[in-house]
Design goal:
This protein is mainly α. It has helices at residues 2-37, 44-58, 60-66, 73-76, 81-116, 129-154; strands at residues 119-120, 126-127. Strands 1-2 form a two-stranded antiparallel ribbon. A hairpin with a 5-residue loop joins strand 1 and strand 2 (126-127). Helix 1 runs antiparallel to helix 2 (44-58), helix 2 (44-58) packs parallel to helix 6 (129-154) and helix 5 (81-116) packs antiparallel against helix 6 (129-154). It starts with a helix and ends in an 11-residue tail after the last helix.
Length: 165
């Protein structure tokens, strides 16, 4: 499971980065079009709003795999090893529950959005359901990542992560 999750994490982080790059190109093009031709590019705001959540949620699991989320290391490091494990377990369980609820609600919203073929209103109708799907995928993967860390910790295994500074 660890290997498959790592592959999925890398794939979704690349999709997230790709969407972010496309959004950057679109925004820069829009600004240049406004400055030099006094004409904004239609759909820039709509596309950016719709896919921003997908960009964020697709990178969550990979960031958690690397240990890159915000932690109170100064506080946690003051406790003995068992206390640190308890803090981590609490954080992973809380994260699992939180993103599990977001996943559940996101799935419900995705189904409604898909059934109605929901579009963001604007000059160009940008479909919302693909972004909702990416949010659901991101939530599912981070839930798996938290679950994997909880299982590894309960087994007494070292929880693999590259500590980012």
């Amino acid at each position: 499971m660890t290997r498959v999750l790592r592959i999925c994490n890398r794939a979704t982080s690349f999709v997230s980065a790709g969407l972010l790059f496309l959004m950057m190109l679109l925004i820069v093009s829009d600004v240049l079009s406004r400055v030099f031709a006094n004409k904004p590019l239609p759909g820039t705001i709509e596309f950016t709003k719709v896919f921003m959540a997908a960009v964020v949620f697709l990178g969550l699991s990979y960031t958690e795999e690397l240990g890159g989320h915000i932690r109170a290391r100064v506080l946690i490091s003051a406790f003995p090893a068992k206390g640190q494990i308890l803090f981590n377990m609490f954080a992973w369980l809380t994260g699992f529950i939180f993103f599990g609820v977001v996943l559940w609600q996101g799935w419900s919203m995705l189904l409604e959005s898909w059934a109605s073929r929901e579009f963001y209103p604007g000059i160009i109708a940008v479909p919302i359901y693909p972004a909702r799907l990416l949010v659901v995928v991101g939530c599912f993967l981070i839930c798996l990542q938290f679950l994997l860390k909880i299982i590894q910790s309960l087994r007494g295994e070292s929880v693999e992560s590259v500590q980012m500074h």
